[in-house]
Structure formats: C-alpha cells, structure tokens
Amino acid sequence: MRFPSCRRQLPPSLPLCCLALALACLGAFDCAHTAAQAPAGPSAAAPAKPGGNFTCNVIRAQPTEGESALAREDYAAALAFYNDAVAKQTDSLEADYVEAHYGLVRALLGSDRLAEASREADALLAAHPSSALAEVATAAVAYRMADFNGTLQHLRKATALDRCEGREHAMAAELYDAMGYHAIETSRLDLAHRLRPNDEEILRAWIDSLPRQRRQVELAKYLAGRTSLSDRDHAILVAQEDHLQAHKEGECHIAAKGDITKVPFVPIMGETNHTIAYGLNVAFNGKSRHLQIDTGASGITLSAGVAKRLGLAPEYHLHTSGVGDEGAVGSYLTHVESIQIGDVTLSNCMVDVLEKPKGGERLDVDGLIGLDVFGHWLATLDYPNRQLVLKPLPPRPDAPSTTGAEEEEAQPHDPYIAPEMKDWMSVLRIGHNILLPTLINTGKLHYTIADTGASQSVLSLALARESGKAHKDDSITFTGVSGKVKEVYRLDDAKLQFGHLMLPPGSFFAFDLTRLSHDVGTEISGFVGLETLSRLTITVDYRDNLILMQFDPKHDPAFYVGRY
Hints:
By secondary structure, the chain is α+β, with helices and mostly antiparallel strands. It is built from 16 helices and 31 strands.
C-alpha cells in the first residue's frame, strides 16, 4: 500500500520524446528462479535472450552503520560513516574500497548533493571499470538526475559484470516500476531480496511489492524485528500494518453502470468569480461536495473542515508534503462507506484528510480527486466539452476469463499496448505522478509532472537557469500544501515542448523543486499545469502507462499548439 500524497498548487510545462529502453535479460537463478525477459520500452530494440543457469553466493552479512543510516534516511550520519571509511582505504583494489565509495555516492544523493555524487561515481567507475557495484553507483546518479537511458546502460553493464549483485536488481526494479513493467519489477525485487536478505532497503521494497495478504505477514515480521527505521517511518508502517489487518473482503469496491460513463465537470470559481479549476460533484454518504480534479494528487483528499462536517474520524495519522517551503503537514486516513461520482460507486474506501494548521485550511477547495481513482478505466479529461469520460480498458491477451478483483489486483503485469493504442505515448509514472518528457528551448530532455491541480505551468529553478536568464520576480506568490514558496523567478520567451505538442513562446515562473525531486526520487523539472492542459483532451491508461493528448483548434482558435 502506498499512502496517498498531496497535490501541489503550482506547475510548469515541457515536451515528450521517445525513451529508448533496450532492457537486458537475465538467465535462471539457481534457486529455481527464472528471471523474466525484460521488455523493450518505447522505440526500443528487442531485448537480448536470457543466458543459462548461474549460481550466486547469498550475502547474509548484517548491515553496517552506514547502511543502517541510509535505510533510515539519516544522510548526515551516512556521510560521516562513509567519508571516514573512504579515508581509511589505502588499497584501491580492495572490495571494501568500492563498497565505501558506493555508500558515499548514496549518501551524497540522499543529501541532494548531485554534482558531488556524480563526480564521486565517475571517479569510482574510472578506477574500477570492471566493478558491477561501480556501475550501480553511476546508475543511481543517472536515475536521480532523470537520465533514464543512462540508468539503463549502466545497469546492463552491471548485469554483464556480475549477475549476482543484488543491488543492481533492486535498482533495475525501481526503473521497471516507473516504466510500468510490474511483473519484471516484482521478479527483480524477489531476486534482489534472495541475494541480500538482510539489506533493509531491499527488504522494504520487496515487502511493498507483495500481494496484500503476504505483505501483511512480512510487514508484521519486519516490524517485530530489529529495524533502522526512524520513529516517524516506524509509526507510518505500523499504521500501514493496522490497515492491512483491518482490510475486509470487498474494501473499496469500484463499480459503474454501463461500459461508458460521462460525468460533467463542475467549475470551481475564484475570488473574482471566474473559473480557476474544474472539479467533480462527489457524494460522501449522500452529502455532495465539489472536488478539484488533480492529476498531481493521488486518491481523494479532503480539507479538515469538510471531513469534520461529514462526520469522518481519524483512523491512521501520517504526514503529507507538496509545493511550499514550510515543511510537511499533518494528515490522516479514514474510511467512507459510500462515495458516488456520477454513475460510479466506491464502497468503503479510504480518503486522506489534511489537518487544519493555525493559519487556516491548506486547501481552498472542498478537496482533491486524483485521476488515478479511475485507474480501472481509460479516463478522459475532455476539457473542450467539460466532462470526464470513462471507457473500459482494452482486455489483456493473458487476462483470465473470470477473476475476482482481489485476485486480479494481486497479479503484477507488464504494459500491454493494444493495436488501436499504438500511437499513444508511453510515459514514466512514479507513484501517481505522470512524468512527461519535456524540452525547453530545444535543450536536453527533462521530465515534468502533468498536474491539473496547478493553476499554471511552472519550471524548476535549475531548468530555468539552464535554459536562459531567469530573474527574480517578487510580484507573485505561490502557495501549496506545504505553505508559501519563498523565492519565485521568471524565465521569458521560452519555447516548451511536451509529448508531440509544441507551445508558442511564453514566460514561465520558476522556483526550487529540490525537495519535491528528493521525495519523488528523480529530478522533476516542473509541472505542466491547468493553463495548458485545459486546452487539450487527455486520456490516461494508468494500467499500461499510456497517455493520449489531443488538441482541437476548433475548440480553442486563439491558442496555437504546434506538432513536431
């Protein structure tokens, strides 16, 4: 279970291009494990055929102090440990030398010191070109910097050097997860855990990949033993364990009347009585509220005031963060017996509630509804006609003729591209965030989040400075779930491309997105916001990581969107 995270109230825009992902394949592991053949990504070459059987030594050593510090995200302690370990290494040919420098790279990445991590990884690889772990360190840097082709290339080299390096399999699983190849992700995590059963980070990722019932058992075993968790993370996992134990058959059952469902948008008005966003009329236990449609959010999030008026009581407490410089905010999860959205019914589902701070509500609307709520359908945001349209997903060729929802949910799948969807864009998705490959001023490839909860498109400060002369702008204030943004900049006369769409030159606001990138795990260069997305018809297939973005000039003749 992944807890819902919150929406940012701001965004940026950029373009998409093909991500060539020729994925390496593994042979059979001696414990009767057969590694799945890795799929090719968009426009990728066919993967190599699997090799033969091979035998590995299982690493059962207990974690070092540095590894434990990394596992609990105490990067200051990890830096101290690995800097000391590096200083003690006198023989660069020793395996301990590579381990120490790999740990230092990880600690620098966790501290968001990307340039230093990159230099350290490059030096390690130059000194040890035949080390699989050095390749994994370089792949970790590439992933954090959103260089996914580079990540893949280094992982392939690591596999060729040492098929038994469990950390390579874990890193590969993270990439496959973002690409939507969940069957391969699960296979790789299983292998990583078997190779390094006492690696706490791998263990937690492996537990998270398991079907619900087994996840409950393994999570309980993990929490009952010795862990490196911080008090906060331990409390979150205990709450997750409680929820797994409280799960009942049919929880959050979702159904719709008929194959095609249309739900009209509800305009959300601003202070000057003009439309600032679009939402849906959602009934909670028969009481209607207007929730803003937010592709930058996950699940359903309510304001504290609305939850109180609905009579919803806290069940599990956690912390939520988003745009803003004032830190994480408190939130809690609670069940709602009945949720009605047009002809769609959700029964006994959990919603996230943002607790009310002293300064007032964190949300200026009743709540948010992420498009991933409709992940069992092809979900279309038809902005020209102001409606949400839900249609059935194309049937998978390998789908069983009859299956219960729980059974189907427990089976991880790789993407399926139906013949009629061959021209759709394959996108990366980390959690609920849809990452759009983006270009600005024909520079290098970056990734932005498609976020209808952001009023306009916003760039990261790093991208703005890379793309032109960004200047500070004190005339505007941005506020998100995590409070106000301290410093806002502006980049003028910028050309933005995302997907197959090219926007006319314009100005973009920019601010520091380091904390968001840290939380997501890769470099986020901005948000494509409602100002741009509301001019399109957008259909998302969450199951297969596919998106279709269409522009019809007849509906919006004043706005020009080119194609390339």
